[in-house]
Amino acid sequence: MREYFIKTVRIGFSKWNKADLNFASQLWGEEEVTRFICSTGKFTKEEIANRLNTEIRNDELYHIQYWPIFELSTDELIGCCGIRSYKSEKHSYELGFHLRKKYWGQGYALEAAKAAIDYSFHILNAKKLYAGHHPENKASEKLLKKLGFQFIGKEFYIPTGLYHPLYEMVNRFNYGK
């Protein structure tokens, strides 16, 4: 049984650990998931292990990661959703989410992203959140706009070798300030 530090109606947010290679492989081993996040369109086993280790390191160093998210009713891995530091801007983070294909189109990305945004502004006192998506990923574009992100330009994304649309959300409430 996993521990969840955030819960929504249907989702539990946990933390990646070294024993999660199987879960990481379920998620980042799906070409439908990785086709928009790397130049080759799929991760090798080594790249999956490296991605898992990166998330674990992000938690150890910064207490944030693209956390694994699970369906509360089944304890099945949905994917990941969370934040990472954005460049060198203090109190600014990048929001990201990757869902397994079987969970697409069911509102899980919206539910998870709202929880990660709330956590970022209320718990971490973030001033800004950034998010981007592959230029061909229209579902992510639609979701970011629905969440209230504003388009601010394009940014070169090294893993795909492309310029990705970039969005921003400012904490209008200044929690904790």
Automatic annotation (TrEMBL):
<feature type="domain" description="N-acetyltransferase">
    <location>
        <begin position="11"/>
        <end position="174"/>
    </location>
</feature>
<dbReference type="Pfam" id="PF13302">
    <property type="entry name" value="Acetyltransf_3"/>
</dbReference>
<dbReference type="InterPro" id="IPR000182">
    <property type="entry name" value="GNAT_dom"/>
</dbReference>
<protein>
    <submittedName>
        <fullName>GNAT family N-acetyltransferase</fullName>
    </submittedName>
</protein>
<dbReference type="InterPro" id="IPR051531">
    <property type="entry name" value="N-acetyltransferase"/>
</dbReference>
<dbReference type="InterPro" id="IPR016181">
    <property type="entry name" value="Acyl_CoA_acyltransferase"/>
</dbReference>
